[in-house]
Amino acid sequence: MTKILLVEDHEELWDFLSRRLRRRGFEVVLAHDGQQGVDVARGERPDVILLDMNLPVMDGWTVARTLRGQGDTARIPIIALTAHAMSGDRSKVIEAGCDDYHPKPVDFSRLLGQIDAALAARQEQG
């Protein structure tokens, strides 16, 4: 079963996403702040990380850089979830270490496609 780490501090969104992802057959683990996201990623080794960029304790930008800088988490695909949908934001999250970008509000069908693409790319890398 594919394991997804959802790092999100808004209860409504983590509840909505985790329930829908579980119905699609994913195992979902949750973290509610950036530091917890780093810790859970190290301990759980998820297949994909959905990362809110505006988090308490440690922001998503720092989380992405931290995970990319460590051998055990460096290759886990990260999809940024952010309400910042300004031009240039996609390139900023990619530079921070994310593999993809999904603006909020979440389009669940599109997000599923991005998760599938991230998993396929990871398999191709070996």
From TrEMBL:
Pfam families: Response_reg
Gene3D superfamilies: 3.40.50.2300
Residue ranges of domain Response regulatory in the record: 3-119
UniProt entry keywords in alphabetical sequence: Phosphoprotein
InterPro entries in UniProt: CheY-like_superfamily, Sig_transdc_resp-reg_receiver
4-aspartylphosphate sites (modified residues): 52
SUPFAM superfamilies, alphabetized: CheY-like (SSF52172)
Protein name: Response regulator
Organism: Pseudoroseomonas ludipueritiae
